[in-house]
Amino acid sequence: MTIFIMISLIQFPDQALEASIRGLNLWWEVVFPSLLPFFITAELLLAFGVVNFIGVLFEPIMRPLFNIPGVGSFGWMMGMASGYPTGAKIAARLREEGQLTQIEAERLVAFTNNSSPLFIFGAISVGFFHDASLGVLIAVCHYTSNAIVGIVMRFHGRSKKKILREKRERVSLTTAFKAMHRTRLKDKRPFGEILGDAVLNSIKTLIMVGGFITLFSVLIKLLFLVGVTPAIAGLFKVALSLFSLPIEFALPFLSGLFEITIGANMITQITTESLLPQLILISFILGFNGFSIQAQVASILAKTDIRFLPYFFARLLHGTLASILTIILYKPLYLNKETSQTSVPASQASDNNIGNYILDLVTQNGALLTFFSLGIAIIILYRRNMKKQ
């Protein structure tokens, strides 16, 4: 693979540079500023024991449903709010701190790496489809199927189940506050150091994410230029025809399996009599995550003993369930609303949609926030190196 990339880069330098810049711009303007606040917040909440507070309160929900401790609820909520790969990042941290066993962490990773509402409503429904009402259908199918995946994965590793049964205290606010206080006392770092570590750890992870986005942007382009992607797309045409889906979606769908944004955009550009085939394929690639995001998750999990295979199985299951739910709910959640309500012009829906507004705000100011954050990281590293000398 490395030799192939090297030879392709020499043969197509201009196209590779263009793809690299496109991937870098996506990271610089959107991904970094969108995820950085969530990453820093997660690090701080972990350090201050708030996660343990939430864990005690949500134990009666998380254990029966997903067979994981209550602290896993924090990863679920943050993953749902900010999108991938936040869930993997939090699961890895909880595993490193010993708050989850290996099997419990694998269960948590399986259903906490999903798309964010901002991406579904802002980028997909309004940005690509120019129809804000589609966001409800896509989101319901995506998050419902994700919860079902979590319930299914509760049986993962049951044959290796431990044992060790702790005497559980009665759930109450007092118990939750005690757990939070104990966690905070264990961390002897001053507030300034905690904040600095939160910023540095978050930026390091996001730089890694940016590297994978740029790499896969170039890889997708090179595979297309050398004819590998069109050849594989021929096999996908057969698969799509078996499911009565238009074969024109083969190449866009294959691109989406590598990188969600590129594939979703290509799928929405193909005109069909019904939106259902497009929604089925987009629901699948959103649940599948794409190889680019899977590589990011694998890199985060590599520092722990959390295995990648259960996560990959969950991605296939999530994509399949989301597609099935899309077929079932397409009429009640979209067609019926379209016929019973006056259609809103796409331009007006775009202007009034809060998701689209936030996405535009992040895009316009994302580069500035990225530059500012990297500057802070450099200052923190410089000051710490000076203290060591």
What this model shows, in words?
- By secondary structure, this protein is mostly helical.
- It has one domain.
- The chain contains 18 helices and no strands.
- The protein has helices at residues 2-11, 13-47, 50-66, 72-82, 86-96, 102-112, 117-128, 134-153, 173-186, 191-225, 228-242, 250-258, 260-268, 276-288, 290-301, 309-340, 346-352, 354-388.
* Major pleated sheet: none
Return Rg in Å. Answer: 22 Å
Strand content: under 5%
- The overall pLDDT, averaged over residues, is 83
Structural class: mainly alpha
Given the structure, what is the number of helices? 18
Q: Helices and strands, in N-to-C order?
A: HHHHHHHHHHHHHHHHHH
* Approximate helicity band: over 70%
Question: Could you tell me how far the N terminus lies from the C terminus, measured between alpha carbons in angstroms?
Answer: 43 Å
List how many beta strands DSSP finds: 0
Number of domains: 1
Shape: globular
Q: Low-confidence parts lasting 5 or more residues at pLDDT below 50?
A: 161-167, 342-352
Protein name: Sporulation integral membrane protein YlbJ
Transmembrane segments: 35-58, 108-128, 134-155, 249-267, 279-301, 308-330, 361-382
Pfam family, one: Gate
Keywords: Membrane, Transmembrane, Transmembrane helix
